[in-house]
Fold this protein.
Amino acid sequence: MEIWLNPACSKCRTAVAELDAAGVEYTVRRYLDEPPTASELGEVVARLGLEPWDVARAKEAREEGIDLPKDAAHRGDWLAALAAHPRAIQRPIITAADGTTVVGRDEDSLRRVLDAEG
């Protein structure tokens, strides 16, 4: 299991506490220090069943100057912009060993990824 997090984020700290309480092993990726590539983001949003703009934090995207149309023609532009400005990416993103991926901001999402981990 891998968790992309920002340690200053309360939702990320909650997710880590839940993973610890469940006793699962995981790898932490501080995505602000080690930003994902556009390709990695593309894989993650595909596993989430979302589009890149769906995992963008609206306020941070605006602050970073990300103002792109939300359509298939600009999908690659969104991925590149989020890779260049990782603070605009929703957090935490958690991927279980079987590929199940969630934005772990709520109890249901955390449960889904923990159930996938077994």
Summary: The helical segments are 10-22, 38-48, 58-63, 75-84, 107-117. The chain has one domain: 2-117.
